[in-house]
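Figure-free illustration: sequence to structure, shown twice.
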Amino acid sequence: IPLLQYVQDMGQEDMLLPLAWRIVNDTYRTDLCLLYPPFMIALACLHVACVVQQKDARQWFAELSVDMDKILEIIRVILKLYDQWKNFDDRKEIAAVLNKMPKPKPPPNSESDQSSNGNQSNSYSQS
């Protein structure tokens, strides 16, 4: 598991691992796992956890031979997800979705059904 290895390598397992795991779990609500390899997602989540915990890991990240531009792309997606969650208003969004849904048609009147059914049965009985 890349995340566990990275956190152990940093020597900050107790401080960073729980938060980094939560961030990894949140990434499954995006398409990141389809676009990037797991080690890059793990590094991005670890980077976000370091920033949140105010852990200076610049030197550790600088020693990695990884495309930091790709890691930053992943971080942007994660931050955008959190921004969407922060600004999401359940009542407003759900009301808008419900308004777009087609309304069910009311059932036909029972009186008109009986008269049309009665006429049909009479015509059949006469023949």
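We now fold a second protein in the same way, so the two outputs can be compared directly.
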Amino acid sequence: MYLLSNVRSSDKSNRIRLIWLEGKRSKTQTLKSLRGATLRVSEAGGHRLVASSVIPGEQPVLWSGVFSADVGRTNTELLVFDISPDFTGKANTDPDFYSSGSETQCSPR
């Protein structure tokens, strides 16, 4: 399951966060699978997610988002992200989602 949200950061700019978890056999295992990442939109800050959709298909898992780049929402960007899980075993370096007790870290490509 994937969740995308706008998050206001301490410097008053918006960040777009991707949070996901896997359906496991128990609630505990499902919660332990919680992962997240901050999506990088462009160099300019203040982007806000306006609309989004998963692009139907097999692998890779593609997600498209429309972002407003200004307060008036007159400047928009359409971006496509590959949010397929990365099973290489690399550690999740996002400080908001790092868990020292996690065995296998998984993050989007």
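Summary for the second example: The first strand starts at residue 2 and ends at 8.
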